[in-house]
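Worked problem 6 (solution included).
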Amino acid sequence: MDARGRATRDALAAIALWSTLAAIVTRLRQVPPLFLVGSTLVVGGLLGVRRLRREDLRPRVLAVGVFGLFAYHLCLFVGLRLGPPVEVNLVNYLWPLLVVVLTPIFVPGARLGARHVVGALLGFAGAALLVTGGRLGIAPGGVLGHLAALAGALIWATYTHLTKRLGDVPTRAVSAFCLASGALALGCHAAFEPRYWPNWADSVLLIGAGVGPMGAAFYLWDRAIKAGDPRVIGTLAYLTPLASTALVALASGGGLGASALAAMALIVGGAAMSARAPREPVGVERAADAPGIE
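Solution. The predicted structure is:
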């Protein structure tokens, strides 16, 4: 398997892990959001802490990681507090589209072809149909929530490209990103949320989330972006809401309706179109192995 094939594999593995997060979070509704983010990021950071080196703690490198992991989740949760959740979630899912359209700005020699653009737009259309069920009305008074979600989407897309630009920074540095971001989130929990101490059942779920969608997924995503084509990987990311919805439906004993099946067709079709677009070299850097993920 060549480097691009491995990158696609890593991206799909990260997407698969992210798709489990909603099913886990639905069972942790009683956990304050900042505590949930902070505790799971700390667990995710501990996955690779033994392999950290002093050079991974450079302020410039840590700033990128905290910008991505902490600022993104902060904007998302603020958006969910200030705006209608369905609309905020939809705006949040602009980030894969932004990953695609921002590629020429961050990656030397990369250009957007028609297949990349159409594939990303099909993916967003599928995500919109999936999140809204085909029923979207803009609620009054939710502008601040929408803006926070848009800021979060832009932050994650920018972070994704910045990690590729930091090609000399090994993937093990994601451990430091998680630990620093988790500590900040827990500090905000102590300052702004009611104190919370998890019971045994919640602790197991929090650890599981930290090991998987809030831990290993970030290492895999870092490795995929550094070795792969952001235009293709960004479009593949629209598989996240699709798989997440399917898992939640399965866990609740429900099924997928007609709108979900139509969304599936749009998302898979968009991913296939983007993957088949002509590829020119895009300045691929070598990504270091992720700790504990082989």
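Discussion: Residues 3-275 form one domain.
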